[in-house]
Amino acid sequence: MEKRLQGLIEDFKKNEGNIISLLQETQEVFGYIPEEAVYRFSEELDIPASNFFGVATFYSQFYLKPRGKNIITACCGTACHVKGSDRIIGSLKRELNLTGEQNTTEDKKFTLEQVACVGACSIAPVVIINKKVHGKMNSDKMAKELKALKEGENE
Length: 155
Ligand code: FES
Prior knowledge:
Layout: H1 2-15, H2 19-30, H3 35-45, H4 49-58, E1 70-75, H5 78-82, H6 85-96, E2 110-115, E3 127-129, E4 132-134, H7 139-154
Parallel strand pairs: 1-2
Antiparallel strand pairs: 1-3, 3-4
Helix pairs in contact: 1-2, 6-7
This protein binds FE2/S2 (inorganic) cluster.
């Protein structure tokens, strides 16, 4: 990590970079923005850590925690809620052994995200699996999708 952080810092200094592009590059390298990277940037570049955290939390494209290899995004908007998104999310959490606030599995293979309306209410409930939209989802269909993903992981 040390070497990669140093490379990002040097690029920033050389190119008079901005915080957003530094965070984007950091996320590209690590898959998320590690807290220790922010403190290191702050120290080396003499920019308050709060500036980095402010940007990282403002833009939804940034992640401050490691994410799983497979991203499952469940819509929790009103239309999806009415059509049973809670049941789908509940069964996903059980299948993935996610408890409390935890949204990424211990083995970092899956992350379950819950978002507001994704704009596809006519096919509610909606689940997005690795960027592919699945409409009219139910617990059985979800279980099959998850099984296929798990099998793919074990190949
Ligand atoms: S509420 Fe889920 S797509 Fe609109």
